[in-house]
Each structure stands twice: as C-alpha cells, then as structure tokens.
C-alpha cells in the first residue's frame, strides 16, 4: 500500500451553518461549497477548499452534520458535543486493489465499499488498525491529479 494524496479532513459538527460561518468569518475561507445531503451515508456535507500556491487542489475540510437521528456520526457528537476531527481521507488509484491490500494486512474494513461525497468509491478502515484515526480511503476522482 502506498500513501496517496490527502484529500480531506472530516470534521463532525452539530451545525453545518455555524461551522460555515466559523470558517468564513474567523478563518477567512473564501471557497466554501454549497452544503448537500448525503442521506445514504446519514450526513449533510459541506466542503471548505483550502488555497495553495501551486495551482493544485488544496486539502479540503469536509464538514459533516448528522442527516437524521440514525446518522452514524451521532455517537461521535454525543461524546464531542462541540464537534471535532472525525476522519482523515487519502486517495488511491484503484479502490478494489486498496481494499484487498488492507484486508491482506489484517486491517478491519468498516462496511462495504460505497460511493462517497466526491462521487467516487470509498471505504473506511477501523481506527484501532490505523493509529487511532478513522481513515477513509477513496478512489482518486477522475480529472484530479
């Protein structure tokens, strides 16, 4: 397994609108995408794009708010009511190969491979197998570098 580009840091938040205000008004973010619902994953999502000097895509901050009472991030927010870092996401060129390699190393995959917020296949690796951090693995979106 070769480490790919970090695509985003996921932050669970109790209010996506309050988090957007924070990144815009306190952190000076100017490139904030429109929030959208991802009910199949139980979340509402908004991406904050960070700038770079190279013209390449910067790392994104993914704000995730529970979609409803069945959201998988509700447990996280119960323990962290103000929100906090939920996961880190790395890109791979081929999701099926990456999953096979993680499984061959004995890493626990959480659930099936599914389509994530970027419209590409993803899976999550258990934090106990990843130095304590829930890790999302995503196939590099077409057209990205």
UniProtKB/TrEMBL annotation:
Annotated keywords: Isomerase, Metal-binding
Highest classification ranks of the organism: Bacteria, Pseudomonadati, Pseudomonadota, Alphaproteobacteria, Sphingomonadales
InterPro entries for this protein: Glyas_Bleomycin-R_OHBP_Dase (IPR029068), MeMalonyl-CoA_epimerase (IPR017515), MMCE/EMCE_epimerase (IPR051785), VOC_core (IPR037523)
EC number, UniProt record: 5.1.99.1
Enzyme class at the top of the EC tree: isomerase
Gene Ontology terms for molecular function: methylmalonyl-CoA epimerase activity
Stored NCBIfam families: metmalonyl_epim (TIGR03081)
Pfam families recorded: Glyoxalase_4
Protein name, UniProt field: Methylmalonyl-CoA epimerase
Domain VOC: 5-140
The family this protein is said to belong to: Belongs to the methylmalonyl-CoA epimerase family.
